[in-house]
Amino acid sequence: MLSILKKEINSFLNSLIAYMAIIVFLIAIGLFMWVFPATSILEYGFADMETLFSMAPYIFMFLIPAITMRSFAEEKKTGTIEFLLTKPLTDTQIIIGKYLATVFLVLISILPTLIYYFSVYLLGNPVGNIDTAGVIGSYIGLFLLGSVFCSIGVFSSSITDNQILSFIIATFLCFLIYEGFSYISTINVWSNFSYYIEQLGISYHYASISKGLIDSKTLLYFFSVIFIMLSATKLVLGSRKW
Amino acid sequence: MSIVIKNLVKQYGSQKAVNNISFEAKKGEILGFLGPNGAGKSTTMKITTGYLPPTEGTVEVCGMDVTEKPVETKKNIGYLPEHNPLYLDMFVHEYLQFVGALYGLKGNYLKDRVKEMVEICGLGLEQKKKIGALSKGYRQRVGLAQALIHNPPVLILDEPTSGLDPNQILEIRKLIKSVSQDKTIVFSTHIMQEVQALCDRVIIINSGNIVANSTIAELKSNRETFAVIHAEFSGTIDIDQLRNLEGVNEVIEAGIGKYKIRANTESEVRPKIFKLASELNWPLIGLNQEEHSLENIFQSLTKKDRN
Q1: Helical residues (DSSP H) of chain B, grouped into ranges
Q2: Could B102 and A87 be called an inter-chain contact, meaning their C-beta atoms sit closer than 8 Å?
């Protein structure tokens, strides 16, 4: 598993995609936070990082599928999947290795935004007037959200050998799970079930973790989605044996 | 026995790609796997390497069942898939180290093995390049190097020489031959000379069935029930006198002064033809017996049940 992880990270670092994804993410977030008047913290007047945490999921929605789309689709297209699957590895090791590599990339792209926290911390009046617990919770939430998107991306990549198709499917599924469920729950046909439908979506849990409330229920939700997505990937990969 | 395949069946939908085949391969043996396109060669190899599961039957590699202990058996197999898939954006050394690490090789031993493979496979000049920048022959060598890196007891090569130029083919063959001691090598091909040059034993497979499983010599002798002799004379001769020779079954006129003679294999008729010609003063200018080439045998074995 470690050798797969290492190889995947190396191939990310050797390709332009990873750098582009990180750079685009940081530029977009930077613009929203400090430049665009509508969302800029400087205009807002409050020392809080809400902009980062509300915009990042939408940027991730496009960038993470762009990173994950190659993971299995490319291997299938070039036939290297046969190479991998005839090596002494279990399917699970291959999936986890590839998945962790993308999560690592998400982590790398989030880390530089810590500078924003210190900027806001120092700019506050009085200095340090920021809800640190809330920011920590939000960071954990954002990382978990990124991890969920990665698992969705890896799954989408496993069901097709076309990278574009994998990208579109992943983006759609990310949108569906992030906001789709809460929109669906507002349709006036569910009566009492709408509460549960809303809880299927990430936005519900993301909102609660952003307040600094790291609830076991929320953590369980994120880890379950990741587990389900990776299991589905394993199922798809194992389907060659049917 | 390094490889034991018993009653292997592989079904794709309603089509049987492999239909109840059984064979064994010993240590130190080079086994040629022949058959027309779509005969089931690659499918059998994919099942042996654990990429596909068998529909029925069992495959044992080094005493372990492929479906029961997939990870352990894969450690004993070096596999070069049909189109030799490689990570084109990796460097040669990086790639071989990655493969070695997948097989659990570590540290200095891994580095030594990579160096050794680069040397054995003749990659010296190209070792600093990206795989994507290599020519087809060198990519094939990289493919062989990755199959050999963990020194596996069983080597499975799916059409290792397809698409290479004649020099490269010779080099790859030499390479296969040089690593063949103390290993079991199964390789598929549809080039007959290759089988003759390399293999101890040949298995011919057609539409999922084994139609021949023997040494090349046996294969040839079994088929030779009659010999075909081409005789050429510069003048006219009496064809009936040729027909009356002992052992001659049939004489066909194949051109001016040219005759095609079918004869029993037991009685050697060439000296008799020569004697007859000298007695009757026929100017004999050519006399040769047709070799039963493996191509003919292959064709006759794989054509008949094509309906």
Answers
A1: 41-48, 70-75, 92-102, 107-120, 136-148, 166-178, 192-198, 216-223, 239-243, 270-279, 294-303
A2: yes
Pairing relation of β-strands B56-61 and B3-12? Answer: antiparallel
pLDDT at B304: 56
Q: Tell me which residues of chain A have a C-beta less than 8 Å from any C-beta of chain B.
A: 3-4, 6-7, 10-11, 14-15, 78-83, 85-90, 240-241
CA angle A55, A59, A61 (to 5 degrees): 115
E strand or H helix at B5: strand B3-12
- Chain A's closest residue to B51, CA to CA, is A86
Tell me how close the Cα of A22 comes to any Cα of chain B, in angstroms: 21
Identify which of B289, B291, B230, B219 has the alpha carbon closest to the alpha carbon of residue B255: B230
pLDDT tens by residue, A125-149: 788 788 888 888 899 999 999 999 9
What are residue B224's DSSP bridge partners? Answer: none
Distance CA B246, CA B272 (A): 8
Query: From the CA of A152, how many Å to the nearest CA of chain B?
Result: 24
DSSP state of B103: T
Domains with residue ranges and CATH for chain B: 3-221 (3.40.50.300), 225-291 (3.30.70.100)
Whether the pLDDT of residue B221 is over 80: the answer is no
Q: Assess: ipTM above 0.90.
A: no
Cβ-defined contact of B83 to A79 (cutoff 8 Å): yes
Encoding tokens for residue A111? 């880390």
Kindly report the pTM of this predicted structure: 0.83
pLDDT at A27 over 50: yes
Model pLDDT, residue B230: 84
Contact flag A88-B88 (C-beta cutoff 8 Å): no
**Spans of all domains in chain A:** 2-241
Reported as a single tens digit per residue, the pLDDT across B127-170 is: 888 999 988 888 888 998 999 898 899 999 988 887 778 888 88
| Option in A6, A15, A82 nearest B81 (CB) | A82
Which tokens sit at B268?
């050697």
When CB atoms are compared, the residue of B77, B85, B102 closest to A80 is: B85
Window 42-101 of B: residues touching A by CB (8 A cutoff) are: 46, 49-53, 70-72, 74-75, 77, 79, 81, 83, 85-90, 94, 98-99, 101
Measured between CA atoms, the residue of chain B closest to residue A89 is: B71
Give residue-wise pLDDT tens across range B40-91. Answer: 888 889 899 988 888 888 898 888 888 888 888 999 899 999 888 999 888 9
Residue B183's closest CA among B197, B168, B200? B200
CB nearest B71 (choices: A90, A240, A241): A90
Is the pLDDT at B307 greater than 60? The verdict is: no
Are A151 and A226 in contact by the 8 Å Cβ rule? The answer is yes
